[in-house]
Sequence to fold (612 residues):
Amino acid sequence: MAQVEIDPRIKSLLLNSRFRPSVVTWNRLEGRPRTIDFDRSLRAEVRDALWMLCRQWQFGEFQGEDAGSAVTSKVQVRTARLNRYAGSSLQAVGYSDELPLETKVEREGFPVDLMTRARLGRQWLKLLKPIGNFQALYIDTFGFLDPATDLDEAHLRSDRQAWQTLEALKGRAVDGARLLEAMYSQPNQHAIWLAQVVPNTANRTKILAATETFKRSIERTYSQPQSTDDPSWASSYLEYQFACAAPATPAGDQQTVLVADQYHQGHLDWYSFDLASQLQLNDKDGANIPAANLKDDEPITFIPTPVEFPGMPNVRWWEFEDRRIDFGSIQPSTTDLATLILAEFGLIYGNDWSIVPYRMPVGALAEVLGIVVTDVFGVRTLIRPAANSLAGEQGQWGMYHLTDRHGGSLDRRLFVPPVLAKIEESAPLEKIILARDEMANMVMAIEQTIPGLVGGGIDGYEAAVALERFFTGQHPPSDVVRIDTGAAIQYQLGTTISENWIPFIPVHNPGSNREIRLQRAAMPRLIPGTPTPVHPRGAVLSAGLDTVPPEAYFIHEEEVPRAGAIVTRTYQRARWWNGKTFLWLGRRKQTGRGQGSSGLEFDRVIPLESGT
Fold:
């Protein structure tokens, strides 16, 4: 083997010199083109085409399922607008979406407290001021009066603020409630009285015109039920029950009826309704039913937009997926339906969905008649409903489909009810707490808040204590002479409870062997010379007391579970899509606070100390 001779100078340098280690780095690598032609570089040639074909086969790109992408889509929809509304009696009246559905269902007559009556009277006098000075005339005829009954007087006198307000208004202001009652009476008592006391025809005509302005102002401020509307509040169930309908044929001879019989939450949506395929609403006499509005909209062409979200699978296999969403860490329970649907949508159908926007009218039932999609190859495909299958529609389920309570076929229409998105709610005007009292074997309805005579809500317990003090002051108890018999015990017939606790006793439910229902009862007022029995002071528990003779009030037992129930009555205010503002009085029901104890006992034996 030949040896290589090294230059002695280089050999000495390598043996005697010290070298420092170094690391060489580059920020980037750039090619050095040897020619000005870039055609081959732009081809992106694949050196191993067989490997690429194998990867495409593994990812299923040769199956041809996603060969054509959607370019255009044509949609046609049939819409039917709601035109009927029915309360608990299912007698239909006309309905238009110019009024929110919650307002139509919940509204009731507004309470006429002293301040409201005075404000309405002042508003009327302001309307009369440009016509002439009729203030004294109206105060003499429609002024504030003393209470009609002894109980009403007791309620007023026990409330110092209310009594002072009434004394300040008598002889100085017009009672707006009395005036409105005369204006809306049949025949018009206000117009008859006006013809007798105002001989000037020109002034009388102006006052009658001001009357219509006054009425419109009241109707614009407070949304109240019409004379043809049936009440929707089912007092036995403590919830609203109503129905609405849309035409099912262009002529309007058939109806699509939607029923909501368990509404008490304060917000309506499509899931509050059930389809009643075998029910047809009867039109009430004098009901103004709008014309049937069922039509097939003109077909509209859209460009489909792919659905995108973080973490979705990418269309191309060689791209990295977004790691911001970890679908593998989702651990839903078996009842968490929304999470399960979301996970399946993201993992299985990630890039197979497109959005086709369509503007729907509010208060309409919409049915998609057909969707035709045209792909990049010019192939047209008719998209059929997902519920269609070879086995038929039995057993099919849809997230936004209405349930037919009569067991009919699956209804594929989408319902967009005319409901409010946000409602402003006042402090409770009335609040009732229903709780089971197992020791007394009855249900107690506690009037925690009651409508105040001056306005707003007041504490029910404080009002009951004030009323009891007033009766005690008016009718002081007589002295009782006790005789010492030497007995060690004393028998007591029963105890009493606060007047804001209204008992409901269990009674037999007709038509059943074992079921019971709860009937409103009354405690006696144990003060001689006072009105008895004790009646509720709020509107929720006073159902049937204003009739002659008074009617019994029943509540179904299942409506007061072990947790109890709370019913509130508040003012609601909202702005609708047309810019109008609506103010109405509605009710809500929610879960209670558990059981309670009133302390009511009967047939008690009390131990006595010697000499008492």
Q: What stands out?
A: The two ends are 138 Å apart (CA to CA). The longest strand covers residues 70-81.
